[in-house]
Inverse folding.
């Protein structure tokens, strides 16, 4: 980083007092602290791909027509037989949503 | 080997030796800059500098080459400093001691007492002014590059450099006599 010549005495003073900092093992410490570099884009693609495949499978294979009607009394009565199909759908959709959000917000 | 060559080697082969060369090239300006920003706390400055380079290593694939590598690196260093300054009152923007040296002393001792050491004078500057002065006047960044590193408008950098230099001139009364070595 070469400095242009200046006629300003304060700038000259600043440049003059800008002394080189000896390495003294700093570079070695940095290199020792380096983590393994991770490429973010393959992970994002894997997550988005999994979410897309999951969405297609859900749309294709879920027995949408045979789902029991939503019955709030079953929820309060903890009637698992009536709730299982809906819980499954909620879990699958939530998982897909999580994958999409995680992919979009991925930050090392 | 140019910075671009070294960066390409890091990205393609995860070459730590290439990155070490980049660290060797830029450790001095980054550590000196952070030492100024932390008002001489060299231990803290070195910790921040180390974190700066580790972040640079992690995020190197986001460096697009649109600016100089040093500018990009200073940008990370500035953010590291700001993160710490938010937690430490003595470093934060608002808490900077801006008390100027007393200017109403007798003529006899005024000159010697007001002739502040440059390091001490820089400590008195508002951190925005200090950052702009150190980047532009000591590290040779243009105002545009400094604005990019500091993530602030160009006009703010120009104002901070101008105000900072005015304050330094006022505080370093002997600057007129200064003859470079």
């Amino acid at each position: 980083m070469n400095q242009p010549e200046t006629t300003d005495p304060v700038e000259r003073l600043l440049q003059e007092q800008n002394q080189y900092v000896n390495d003294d093992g700093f570079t070695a410490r940095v290199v020792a602290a380096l983590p393994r570099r991770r490429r973010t884009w393959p992970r994002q693609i894997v997550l988005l791909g999994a979410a897309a495949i999951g969405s297609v499978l859900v749309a294709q294979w879920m027995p949408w027509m045979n789902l029991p009607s939503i019955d709030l009394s079953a929820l309060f009565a903890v009637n698992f037989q009536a709730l299982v199909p809906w819980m499954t759908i909620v879990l699958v959709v939530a998982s897909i949503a999580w994958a999409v959000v995680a992919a979009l917000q991925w930050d090392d | 080997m140019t910075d671009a060559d070294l960066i390409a080697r890091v990205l393609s082969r995860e070459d730590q030796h290439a990155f070490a060369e980049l660290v060797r090239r830029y450790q001095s300006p980054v550590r000196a800059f952070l030492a100024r920003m932390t008002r001489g706390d060299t231990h803290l400055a070195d910790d921040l500098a180390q974190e700066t380079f580790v972040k640079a290593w992690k995020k190197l694939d986001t460096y697009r080459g649109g600016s100089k590598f040093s500018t990009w690196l200073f940008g990370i260093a500035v953010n590291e400093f700001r993160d710490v300054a938010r937690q430490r009152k003595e470093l934060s923007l608002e808490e900077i001691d801006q008390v100027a040296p007393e200017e109403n002393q007798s003529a006899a001792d005024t000159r010697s007492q007001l002739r502040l050491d440059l390091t001490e004078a820089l400590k008195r500057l508002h951190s925005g002014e200090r950052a702009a002065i150190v980047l532009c006047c000591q590290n040779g960044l243009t105002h545009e590059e400094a604005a990019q590193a500091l993530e602030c408008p160009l006009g703010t950098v120009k104002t901070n450099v101008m105000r900072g230099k005015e304050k330094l001139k006022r505080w370093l009364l002997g600057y007129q006599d200064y003859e470079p070595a």
